[in-house]
Amino acid sequence: MIELKDVYKTYTRKGISNDALKGINVKVEKGDIFGVIGYSGAGKSTLIRLVNYLEKPTKGQVFVDGHDLGKYSDKELRAAKKNIGMIFQHFNLLESKKVFDNVAIPLILLKKNKDEIRKRVLELLEFVGLGDKAGSYPSELSGGQKQRVGIARALASNPSILLCDEATSALDPQTTRSILQLLKKINAEYNITVMIITHEMSVIQEICNKVAVMEEGRIIEQGSVLEVFGHPQHPTTQNFVKTVIQNSITNSMQKSIKREPGSGIYKLEFVGQCASEPILYKMIRSYDVQVNILFANMTEIEETTLGKVIIQLKGDTAEVNKALSFLKNSGVGVEEVEKHDVNYSYN
Amino acid sequence: MMSTTVTTDQFMQAIMDTLYMVGMSLFVGSLIGIPIGILLVVTRPGGVLESKMLYAIINPVINIVRSLPFIILLVAIIPFTRLIVQTSIGTSAAIVPLIIYIAPYIGRLVENSLLEVNPGILEAAEAMGATPFQVIWYFLLPEAVGSLILSLTTATIGLIGATAMAGTVGGGGVGDLAIVYGYQRFDTVVVIATVVVLIIFVQGIQSFGNILARKIRRY
Ligand SMILES: Nc1ncnc2c1ncn2[C@@H]1O[C@H](COP(=O)(O)OP(=O)(O)O)[C@@H](O)[C@H]1O
Ligand SMILES: [Mg+2]
């Protein structure tokens, strides 16, 4: 669907060169909602702008539907762009045109006839929930409504890919959520592949199924959102995950933990089905161990529940071991926290 | 009681001459200047039709013409004027230098208006796969219309000032009247009347431009 192969991008300005991308490899499958997250200046916008060739790679190749965009003539490239919609942080609507005409523009460029344009535009406005705003000017709309116009415009030419560069970064949390739901609906109903750039982990959590984490022009981690959220490897990824999943024991709790002989501290991870079963209860009933819950958190990612629990187990070594085996056999991830490890956090 | 040697007819004729000179040179000047402004914007580095060569030619030529005071331009191009309109005196002869004076000025003003357009909109246009012509026609110009009207208003007012000097080649107009009768023959009434007319012209044009721009912008 979308593939970036060993892509480098260097901007040169007044003799000073800036390596914005340093060897990017990304593969986005059809139907994915693919998120790219990173701090400002990481190279996210540069990356997404390569997908519709607003920027050309200095080195490497960009494939869309199996075609190398670098091999296209200008004309072929323009045709290919009709298949890729794009929405922007600041909407980029024509202020001088009414909502209707803004949405109609891609169709005018395609030289569709008036009736066809009218029908399609009204249908799109209805779809994005702005059926009554056709005659308004963008300046009369709220941020969320403007982005809906942007989305309708991006969908006008029936693209199979939608690129979103910080599309919700200028919006409040509630509006962000409603726009994300709309993107999800577009992905589900039209099977449009969505690529989202953001610096907010909550955006990734809300709708993405895959994620790539960027730093200084490189992808430092990528995979399914569940994988990356569940086991973030890189410190930057861990920082991003922390913003949406609380993952460490509170300070006062940490102070009150007594590391007695015969007791151990364990990080447990419940994924999916086993998060909804009374596993801890069963363990306590079956084995002679004392359980002290130090921390617990449940998060939903990709419609899967991810539970993180830190417990202290006290009891006979044999009983504790049996209890731990029971947990492992029930599909719970178990990891002992070393004695000298004072940072009881999930990463 | 103040008296004047200028008849009402003479005065009306002068007003008509001024309007004619301003109108004609604004019209032809725009026909030349607007495309120049567009060309400057699209050929500049990073423009949709980037062309180092074209930009490197147009840009300095405009600067050179723009750096000549109108009164000098007027005299300097007399041979050219004669070639075009077969005469070097009279209202028509004044229009040629007025056009050459105003076209590059309009070009610059148009360039500035177009550069004000939010670059994000051009990026959206490019992302839609618009051709360079479509970018200009469907995105750049509509977004700049309000600002373009204000630019042409400024150009018109500049032209009114320039027509006052057209008297040098017998161009007529209210400026000529003020110099010939008012200044050289101490006819205070003519001077006052001329000043009043010029103020009304300038105010009227500016207000008209402002209202039109606001109406079109609507934002
Ligand atoms: N057109 C450009 N010219 C020069 N440098 C650029 C340009 N666009 C981006 N950059 C630089 O490339 C780097 C990555 O920028 P960008 O892709 O916008 O990052 P992000 O979207 O993650 O904030 C930054 O250092 C930025 O300054
Ligand atoms: Mg960015």
Automatic annotation (TrEMBL), chain A:
This is Methionine ABC transporter ATP-binding protein. It comes from Paenibacillus rhizophilus. The keyword Glycosyltransferase does not apply. Residues 2-241 form the ABC transporter domain. InterPro entries: AAA+_ATPase, ABC_transporter-like_ATP-bd, ABC_transporter-like_CS, ACT-like_dom_sf, MetN_ABC, MetN_ABC_transporter-like, NIL_domain, P-loop_NTPase. PROSITE patterns: ABC_TRANSPORTER_1, ABC_TRANSPORTER_2. Keywords: Amino-acid transport, ATP-binding, Cell membrane, Membrane, Nucleotide-binding, Translocase, Transport. The keyword Ribosomal protein does not apply.
UniProtKB/TrEMBL annotation, chain B:
This is ABC transporter permease. It comes from the Bacteria. It is found in: Cell membrane. GO terms for biological process: D-methionine transmembrane transport. The keyword Cell membrane applies. CDD domains: TM_PBP2 (cd06261). Residues 15-207 form the ABC transmembrane type-1 domain. The chain crosses the membrane at residues 20-42, 54-78, 84-106, 148-169, 189-213. One of its GO terms (cellular component) is plasma membrane. SUPFAM superfamilies: MetI-like. InterPro entries: AA_ABC_Transporter_Permease, MetI-like, MetI-like_sf. It comes from Paenibacillus rhizophilus. Belongs to the binding-protein-dependent transport system permease family. CysTW subfamily.
